[in-house]
Amino acid sequence: MSYTPRLNSVVPVEDDDMAIAETEVHTTREEYVRMVEAGVFEGRRVELIDGVVYEMPPQLSPHASTVMLAQEVLRAVFSPGFSLRCQMPLDVGVESMPEPDLAIVPGAPRDYYAAHPTGAALVLEVTDTSQYHDRKRKARSYAKACIQDYWILNLARDVLEVYRDPVGDTYRTRLALRRGEQIAPLARPDAPIAVADLLPFRPGSAPK
Fold first, then answer.
1. What is the separation of C-alpha 202 from the centre of its chain, rounded to a whole number of angstroms?
2. Angstrom distance (rounded) from CA 161 to CA 179
3. How remote is the C-alpha of 43 from its chain's centroid?
4. 122-127 and 149-154 strand pairing
5. Using CB atoms within 10 A as the burial measure, which of 2, 81, 105, 183 is most buried?
6. Whole-prediction pTM
7. Cα-Cα-Cα-Cα dihedral of 73, 196, 200, 85, to 10°?
8. pLDDT per residue over 90-133, tens digit each?
9. Who contacts 67 (Cβ-Cβ below 8 Å, separation ≥6)?
10. Alpha carbon of 194 to those of 108, 198, 200: distances in Å?
11. pLDDT reading at 24 higher than 90
12. What contacts 44, CB < 8 A, 6 or more positions away?
């Protein structure tokens, strides 16, 4: 299969954001899928957000470790009837196909053989070097898709950011929770999670 993408030069982004914009021309999800099928992005971590393809930086060990930790916590909280997807696409609009670090979706894995989920009960991102990308760009995309519960584990600030009540392309409720506090997913209000169980180490206390 051959496909000629409409690629422009790399676009510089904010200093604390290592996600690199790959296209300036808006790309639809359908066009993006054709590019992926053609191998245009082979060997690279990319995602489509609001019509722009972003290349993500390599994962550092704190990021990868935190994703694994949060995966264990959420798997224990969400009972049968939900599936946990790790860094897999969501079809959340004609111009967006993000790949969140973790997404809790209804149903079983076989339910998504023919198509990716179009929503999620909970989306969780781990952010260290891509704060603007996760807190602004992806938050807008998730809000527009009516994702009711969007969490960001912010390693730089050592907090869990919770975004709820989406209206249009923004979230009306934004919380910053610290160690010692708890939060229950909207889809599991009877199962509070300790913020400390999601965050890997206190700043400066990580093993050498």
1. 23
2. 12
3. 19
4. parallel
5. 105
6. 0.87
7. 30
8. 999 899 999 999 999 999 999 999 999 999 999 999 998 778 88
9. 59, 86, 87, 101, 102, 126
10. 26, 7, 12
11. no
12. 55
